[in-house]
Sequence to fold (816 residues):
Amino acid sequence: MLFNSLSFVVFLVIVLALYYSKLFSWTSKKVMLLLASYVFYGLWNPPLVILLWISTVVDWITGKKLATEDNERKRKLWLLLSMFANLGFLGFFKYRDFLLDNFTTVVNTYGYGYQAQTMDIILPMGISFYTFQTMSYTIDMYLKRTERAKTFLDFALYVTFFPQLVAGPIVRAGDLISQFYEEKKATLDQFFWGIFLVTIGLFQKIVLADILLSGTADTVFGSNKLLHGLDAWIGTLAFSGQIFFDFAGYSTCAIGISLMLGIILPDNFKYPYASLGFSDLWKRWHISLSSWLRDYLYIPLGGNRYGITRMYAALMLTMLLGGLWHGAAWTFIIWGGLHGTYLILERLQRKYIPFKITPWNGMFLAFITFSCVNITWVFFRAREFKTAWNMIKSMFYMQTDGEKILEPFDILKVSLVVALLFLCHWVMRNTSMKEVSLKTSPMVLGIVWALMLFLIAIAQGSGEQFIYFQF
Amino acid sequence: MQLKQSLIIAFLLSIIGLSVWEIYWRSQGYYPTINDEKSLWALQRAKVETASDDQVIIIGSSRAYFDIQLKEWENETGKAPIQLASTGSSPLPTFHDIVNNTNFKGTILIGVTPGLFFSTTFPQASPWSRAQSKVDYFKNRTYAQRINFHLSIPLQENLAFISADEEEWSDDIDLKSLLRQIQIGKRTEVPIKPPFYNFGNVNLDRNMSMINRTVVDTAYANSIIKVWNFFGKSAPPPDKKSTMAFFMEDLKKFKARNGNVILVRFPSSGGVRMGENHVLPRAEFWDHLVNQAKVKSYHFEDYNQFKNLKCPEESHLSKEDAQYFTSELLKIMKADGALTNSKTN
Fold:
C-alpha cells in the first residue's frame, strides 16, 4: 500500500479509529497494529508476508537465545544463524541474478559458453529495510547493547510497524520496542503536527517529485542519445530533486503517521543538499542507513582504530557495500565508490589543506558538495553503465554535438525547483521545521498548509511508487 | 504553536479553494467523467477469466471502442460484450494474452484498423506497448491498486476536476497536464503535435461514445483531424509480414480450441480514409488478412447500410451512428451465422 493512495487514507482512518477506541486494551491495540501492518504489506503481494514472519521468528528466537546463553561460541553460532537467514533472503531475492550474471560473464570470458537460467524473481518490497532493522536487533543483542524485547508481540510489531516498514527510517530496537511497552497516545499537538508532516511528505512526493521533476529525469535518463550538456545537467538535477523529495517525502509521512499514533521515529533527513562536505552529507542524508552502516560495518571493520590506511579501506568498503545495498548493479557500486572516494579526499584535505568554514565560504562549499553529489546521482539513476558514462561525458562538455531533448520550460521548471530546494536547505540547515513553524503565525502556516493540500488534490497523483521501495 | 488554529484555516481554505476550482472548470464546460485508464480495462479483462462460451469479447483500437455500443449489442443479443479495445493500440497483444493466458473459447471480435493492426510487433513501439501495458497491468495489479480504483470511482463520477486520462489529452486539467500546456519557445527538433482534445466519454462498462461537440463543432472536429494527419505523416511503414505471422499463430491456437474470431473493418471517411487506402490498400492488407485467417469478416465498404456513414473527425462514428452501426452489424452477423457461440434473441 502506498501513502499516496486513496486506499491508504481509508486504511489510516480505520487504524486511527481502532487505535483511539476505548474498547480495546493496549495489548489488543498492538495486535491490531500488527495485523494492520501485515494488511498494509500484504495488499501489495500477500505471499511475501511469509518472509516477514520467517524473519520475525528467526530473530525472536535468536534474541531469546542470545539473552540467556553465556557460551560465547554458541552465542556466535546463533548470531550467524540469524545473519545467514536474513542475508540469505536478501541475497536470494535481490542479488541472485546479479551474481549469476557476473559469474556467467567471468566464466564465458574463458570460453565455457555457460548459459545461466534466470528466475525472474520478484523483489519483496522494502526487504533491505526490514532486514537491516531486524539484523540490528540481533547484533545489538549479541553485543549486549540492547535489552531483549519483552514479548513476541512487541518484537513482531518492531519488525513490521507499517509506517516505516518498506522504506524506513531503519529504527534501532532500543528506540522503538521500548515505546511499545506502555500505552501510547498522541497529544493533540502531536496529532496535528503528525497531520502537517503527512501533508508535507505527500506534497514532496506527489507535487514536487512526481509532477514537477520525474518527467524530466525520466526523459533524460531514458534517452539512448548522446545529449547536449545542458540537457544532461538538467536531467541530473531533476533526479537529484526527485529522489530527495521522493525519499524524504516518504520518511516525513512515516514520522507523521507514527506521531499520530503517539510513537516517535527519528529524523531521516536534515536538509542534506546544504551539507558542508561529505561527512556532513552522511549525517544529513538517509541518516538511519548511514548510522547503521557506521555502527554495524565501518566500526567492526576497524573504523579509525588501526591507522589511516585501514581506516580508508574500511570507509571505502562501507560505501561500496552501501552502494550495493541500494541495488544489485555495478552502477550502484560505482555510486558507493564515488562517495567513498569523496570521503577519503575530504579527510585528506582536512589533514593537509585545512581551512576554516565561515558563512562566506560555507555556501560555496555547500554548492561544491551538492554539485559533486549530483555526479554520483548519474550512476545511481542510470540503468546501464553506458548511459551513465554518456551522461558524464555530456555534463562535462566532452560531447559538444549532443542532442537537445528538453524544451525551455522543462529547463526553467527544474532549475527553479532545484535552486529553491538548495536555498531552502541552506536557510534551514541549522534549524528545523518545528522551530520555524513555532515562529510562524497560525494564519500563515494555515495558508501554506491549505496551498499544499490544494496542490495535492489537483495533482491527482497517479499513485507512483516511491523510488526507495525497490531497495 | 497553535496548530489547531492552523489546521482549521488549512481545512477551510482548501475546501474553499477546491470548490472554486471545481466551479471554475464546470463554468468552462467540464463535467464529471470516468477516466479511461488501465484499471478500468483490467476490470473488464478480469471478466474473461470466467466468461462462458457464448460471450463475445471486442478487441482492437479506438474504432472498435467508439463504434460498438454495448447497450445496442445487449439489446440485440441479450448479453453485453466485454469491451477490451484500446485507443491507439494494436489488437495483437490483447489477442495473444487471451489466447495464451485464458481458456476462453467464445467469440473474439477484432477491429481491424489497418494502420494499427499491421503496424508492428516491436515491444517498445507505441501501438504495441500501449496494449501490452494494459495486459501487464492486469497481470501485476496489486490488491491495493484494485481498492484504489474502486475508491476513486465516486470522486470521478462527482468531480469535474478529477480528470487525468491515460491518453494525456490537451484539455486534461490535472496539475501535470496543465503544466504540460505551458510552452516558452522551442529548443528541440521534435515536431510539435497539434492539440489533441478528448472527443469521447467512457462509462464503467467501458462503453465509449463520441461527445456531441465533436459532431456539432466543425472546428473542434477539424482539430482532431489535424492530429490524425500528424500521426499519419509520422508513422513508420507497416510491418505486414511480422504482424501477420504473429496473428496467424495465435489464431491457429484459438481455432484449435473451437474459438470463434470475427474480423471487422470499421468505417473511416474523408482524408483519413484516403490516406489509409493509399498506404494500406484493401487488396494488399485487409483482403490478404481475410484470405489467410479464413474467419467471418466484415468490411464496411461491402454493405449499403454503412457506405454513407460519415465520421465527424474522419475516424470514428458519432454516438447515434455507432448505435445504428452496432445494430446493423449484428443483424448482418446473425444472418451470416457469425456469432456461432452466442445465444441470440
Remarks:
- Chain B has one domain: 51-335.
- The interface with chain A takes residues 1-14, 17-18, 21, 142-145, 147-148, 151-152, 155, 161-164, 173-176, 179, 182-190 of chain B (CB under 8 Å).
